[in-house]
Write a structure and sequence with these properties.
This protein has about 450 residues and is α/β, with parallel strands linked by helices. The protein folds into three domains: about 200 residues, 2-enoyl-CoA Hydratase, Chain A, domain 1, CATH 3.90.226.10; about 130 residues, no CATH class; about 80 residues, Nucleic acid-binding proteins (OB fold (Dihydrolipoamide Acetyltransferase, E2P)), CATH 2.40.50.140. Strands 1, 2, 3, 4, 5, 6, 7 and 8 form an eight-stranded mixed beta sheet that branches. Strands 9-10-11-13-12 form a five-stranded mixed barrel. Helix 2 links the parallel strand 1 and strand 2. The longest helix has 26 residues. Keywords: Membrane, Transmembrane, Transmembrane helix.
């Protein structure tokens, strides 16, 4: 029995000894983070890349492979991503798996190494306006060309080719970039020694690992989280004005509706999604949310404090908070103006075509009117005098006094002057205004 126990202990010790090298190797295996950019370059992408890069730094990754397949996007977002890449500790390898166009080319140039698939392309990076697709103004264009130049120089690449990707006046006929055309390099052209924009052409991700002696590394593939996915969608420049317009229109419809219903819910949901997406994307801080809430409180106080100052300050606070939340004040200002225009249009339609009134103010503003239809009159309307006969006490020029059965009544003549002691007939009664005319014939007097 003792021999068996001894053999068992020796066997456990043997397994422990032979497992030490394997456990040591596993614990110290190099890590490579695989991060994909395969959609439009926008603000939401920055949040995803920032999280991925920070995870790689915390795990002491040996390298980050940025697999790029994008037609580009927004230059301001690309600029922030480029800065983020420059500040990241692990080596970043760009793998252009088909295309790195426009902002995608700018991001690739910030990588320490660039590899391309056989059909990969990089270039065509002129800055254009997001709404029209036309080239940006001279100042913005000059700035972007300088950004492309700096990106190339960061890792000692020839800046001429980067500038030719953004500036159509630079002629490189050898690469189909004549006058007025932008440079786009194929995988083979980028790998030429003269150009030096690609460290090599690889047919797969595995080959890329082998070329960089990372085939034994542990690959950590990052994915966009649910919150980051929502943030990328919400912060898209096309979605932002739509979301704000829904919020504005919903609030307007709710003002003209009794109680609280679907329009108000839609407005609150839209505003919640707006701030949630921009907070997750790192574009807005909690100070913008606090400023928004302060604006809401000020508007609420307006219903209890007369003067309008609280309401104006509240509206300004809300607009400023939305503009600051977007990261790009000019674009956000346009988005807010679009939302205001939609809300005002909705208000006009509701009032003009549907004749709706503000239900929200019913408890605060006296909505009842003292009109004739409601049974109110400004003074006594003596319609019973209509057709009665009387006698003038004073001349009517045209106003004067008549006597009717001992009652003196102020009247006006229907037309010309009527002398005193003349017989008249009351022909019109309009409130306190009583109109008479002279009785021309004795028969008319007797018939009364």
């Amino acid at each position: 029995m003792r021999k068996m126990i001894g053999k068992f202990i020796l066997f456990i010790l043997f397994l422990s000894v032979i497992s030490i090298p394997f456990s040591h190797t596993s614990a110290n295996a190099d890590k490579v983070y695989h991060v994909k950019i395969n959609k439009e370059v926008e603000k939401g992408l920055y949040a995803y890349l920032k999280r991925s890069f920070r995870e790689a730094e915390a795990a002491e990754a040996k390298a980050i492979i940025l697999e790029i397949d994008t037609l580009g996007g927004f230059t301001d977002a690309a600029g922030e991503i480029g800065k983020l890449m420059d500040e990241t500790e692990p080596e970043i390898i760009a793998y252009i798996n088909y295309k790195a166009i426009s902002a995608g080319a700018y991001i690739a140039l910030h990588a320490e190494k660039i590899y391309m698939s056989p059909n990969g392309k990089i270039g065509a990076a002129q800055a254009v306006e997001g709404t029209t697709g036309n080239a940006v103004d001279v100042k913005a264009h000059s700035y972007w060309v300088a950004e492309m130049k700096s990106a190339a120089e960061t890792h000692e690449r020839n800046p001429m080719y980067a500038m030719a990707m953004a500036e159509p006046s630079i002629e490189l006929d050898k690469y189909r970039a004549g006058a007025g055309k932008l440079l786009t390099l194929t995988a083979s052209e980028a790998a030429e020694e003269e150009v030096g924009y690609s460290n090599g052409t690889v047919s797969s991700f595995d080959e890329l690992l082998e070329v960089n002696e990372l085939q034994d590394a542990e690959i950590v593939a990052t994915k966009v989280s649910f919150a980051e996915g929502i943030a990328r969608f919400i912060t898209h420049p096309i979605v932002v004005p739509i979301l704000l317009s829904i919020a504005g229109l919903g609030l307007v419809v709710e003002l003209y509706s009794p109680g609280f219903g679907v329009p108000g819910t839609m407005a609150i949901t839209s505003l919640f999604l707006f701030f949630f997406g921009h907070l997750v994307a790192g574009l807005a801080g909690y100070e913008t949310l606090i400023l928004f809430l302060v604006g809401v409180v000020l508007i609420a106080l307006e219903f209890f404090i007369a003067g309008g100052i609280a309401g104006v300050l509240g509206a300004v606070a809300i607009v400023v908070s939305i503009i600051l939340a977007g990261g790009n004040p000019m674009f956000m200002a346009y988005a807010v103006l679009i939302a205001i225009a939609v809300a005002v249009s909705g208000m006009v339609i509701i009032m003009k075509f549907f004749g709706r009134k503000l239900h929200l103010l019913n408890k605060m503003v006296l909505m009842d009117s003292t009109d004739t239809e409601s049974g109110y009159v400004s003074n006594v309307n003596r319609t019973e005098l209509l057709g009665k006969k009387a006698k003038t006490v004073t001349p009517l020029r045209p106003s004067g006094t008549i006597d009717m059965d001992g009652e003196r009544i102020d009247v006006v003549s229907q037309g010309s002057y009527i002398d005193r002691d003349k017989h008249v007939i009351i022909v019109k009664v309009e409130g306190s205004r009583i109109v008479v005319r002279e009785v021309e014939e004795k028969g008319e007097m007797n018939n009364g």
